[in-house]
User: What shape does this take?
Amino acid sequence: MSKVHVFDHPLIQHKLSIMRDKNTGNKQFRELLDEIAMLMVYEVARDLPTEDVEIETPICKTTVKMLSGKPIGIIPILRAGLGMVDGIINLIPNAKVGHIGLYRDPETLQPVEYYCKLPVDAEQRELFVVDPMLATGGSASAAIQFIKDRGCHNIRLVNLIAAPEGVQRIQRDHPDVNIYVAAMDEKLNDHGYIIPGLGDAGDRLFGTK
Ligand code: PRP
Ligand code: URA
Assistant: This one.
């Protein structure tokens, strides 16, 4: 069963609270998402393996720790997932980025795919699928299935806000995928929006409404 990690760090919570406020404009919303993504990936990466490496400091030879596991891939779900990429790449500059284009049909709430471009060696990477919102879970589940169908199996899902419905959907469809969130919200409304949430993440990031 997927584990759910909730990051209740005061800095993350403070920044997220400003993002939720409807009076926060696009520029500040983008900057805060960028900052929170960076803070979150610090914790998401906590269990990455390291190995001992011999180096020489200006003073002497010594043994230090370096990352040793699979290289990282970041897979934003378009559009809103794009807002989390820069913050993560700041901390993991060698990560490759793959894109999956999905939008949620407003009537059926089903994900519709329109784009996919993954790193050629995606199946050899530890993949972080990123999207600020996990609502019904339909988009994230479809994106994960999509990359699994291409042979990828080391997958983590990183969301800003999740609804219980979305978490249950991922736990049912992808029990091998752990979920990392800044907040677990209460529920969905009749239109599939997260309550209290922050509204439409893509529109608030890109100013399209
Ligand atoms: C939003 C969000 C997720 C999806 C979550 O994207 O960024 O991808 O909805 O909803 P779900 O869990 O019910 O599938 P949206 O479809 O609005 O597309 P956008 O990012 O292009 O705005
Ligand atoms: N997508 C969003 O952007 N926000 C929600 O609350 C639900 C889905």
